[in-house]
Amino acid sequence: MVAEVPDHIANRIGSYLKLADNALTGAKTKALRPHGVTVPQYVTLMALHILPGQSIAQLARTASLTPQTMSTILGNLENKKLVTRDHSPSHTRIVLLNLTDEGHRVALAADEAAHEIEQQITDAFPPQELEQTRTVLGKIVEILRTSTDES
């Protein structure tokens, strides 16, 4: 038996944002499965595709993960031969990460699948509603970043 969520909780904006995030992540998870990567692995591959030679710390910040979690993700990507680790020429303790040729191929194929999910959302809205949605979501991000910076 599932408990009813009281309206004063269910109607919070955070509840709707979380539901949307869960639905998007679930759809992307399913779309990425044929490419053999998870959503966090996809985010990591795309970050390295866009900006090669990042450190584990940089990638962790990009993906909003801890360096330990990013290390685990990178270990899995290394096992799949999608990324390589090289020591920085300027600082031997820093490891720089790059995609292999196969890593680039998987990143682009996975991005196409993820983009199709996002396109389904985009296609469901008239242009004016889509722009309003972007504006509202951007404002939410700005409010939360500002309130976090102030505390």
The main pleated sheet reads as: 2 strands, antiparallel
Shape: globular
Whole-number radius of gyration?
19 Å
Distance between the termini: 40 Å
* Derived structural class: mainly alpha
- N-to-C SSE series? HHHHHEEHH
Helical element count?
Answer: 7
Question: Helix amount, in percent?
Answer: 55-70%
Provide the low-confidence segments as ranges: none
> How many β-strand stretches?
2
pLDDT average, as an integer? Answer: 92
**Beta-strand content bin:** 5-15%
For the largest sheet, list the strands in their spatial order: 1-2
In summary, what is this structure?
This protein has 151 residues and is mainly α.
Features:
151 residues, globular
Layout of SSEs?
Elements: H1 7-10, H2 13-32, H3 39-50, H4 56-63, H5 67-79, E1 83-87, E2 95-99, H6 101-123, H7 127-150
Antiparallel strand pairs: 1-2
Helix pairs in contact: 2-6, 3-6, 4-5
Describe the structure.
The protein has 151 residues and is mainly alpha-helical. The chain has seven helices and two strands, in the order H-H-H-H-H-E-E-H-H. The protein has helices at residues 7-10, 13-32, 39-50, 56-63, 67-79, 101-123, 127-150; strands at residues 83-87, 95-99. Strands 1-2 form a two-stranded antiparallel ribbon. A hairpin with a 7-residue loop joins strand 1 and strand 2 (95-99). Helix 2 crosses helix 6. It is globular.
